């Protein structure tokens, strides 16, 4: 039985009269990628924001490991083991790749204890940053200025920065956005490597990547889950075909 590292129960987020996320229940399991797909406006980003604490749910619960983290701040949820990459980049462009990853590794220390623990924790922070750099395949680029590396490498760097906080659960929002074929293939390989020991939520529009990566697939339309299962089950679902996949294919 796969281990559930994050579970969301009956999550709802209303903006005025609009239920952007409507009664969504899902689990993220260790060593598995759970992809969430759906047309523009389906509620995928809102769902990610609810899981990371960037938005408070109108109703429902989020459990991370054994803790109920509903209503916690993003910083507290991050320290509890959830890492997320943002569509909007958090990279400091004038700094080197290594400096960015190291700063991210440091950010995990609680604010109040930071100065006290600084001296003792330098070694620990460096080790964490080294490991994240290696996992993300960025060691050869460690001294490069972040603003000068390719778009694909910047997305790798964002993931390295997320990994530097040592999350057990990873939320990745469109990690392949804007990538060419070669960069996208490299990112797919990276995500497959990261699957080990992590539970991953992947929001992605690139259907080839989704079907190459996902162990479990959830389809959202208008804030609601219309199907959830293995990629094969979802692909065969008539409702999904007419609501989403068929429409994609029809538009090429
Ligand atoms: N802060 C907000 N205030 C009001 N409405 C919002 C807000 N954020 C999102 N929405 C609305 O909620 C719905 C879901 O939006 P969301 O961005 O979560 O969809 P999405 O599936 O991530 O779309 P995309 O694939 O385009 O990123 C949309 O109708 C959107 O306009």
UniProtKB/TrEMBL annotation:
UniProt KW Hydrolase keyword: no
Annotated GO MF terms: ATP binding; ATP hydrolysis activity
Keyword entries, A-Z: ATP-binding, Cell membrane, Membrane, Nucleotide-binding, Transport
Record carries keyword Kinase: no
ABC transporter domain: residues covered: 6-247
Classification via PROSITE patterns: ABC_TRANSPORTER_2
Gene Ontology terms: cellular component: plasma membrane
SMART domains, A to Z: AAA
Any Pfam family: ABC_tran
Name the record gives this protein: ABC transporter ATP-binding protein
Species the sequence originates in: Caenimonas sedimenti
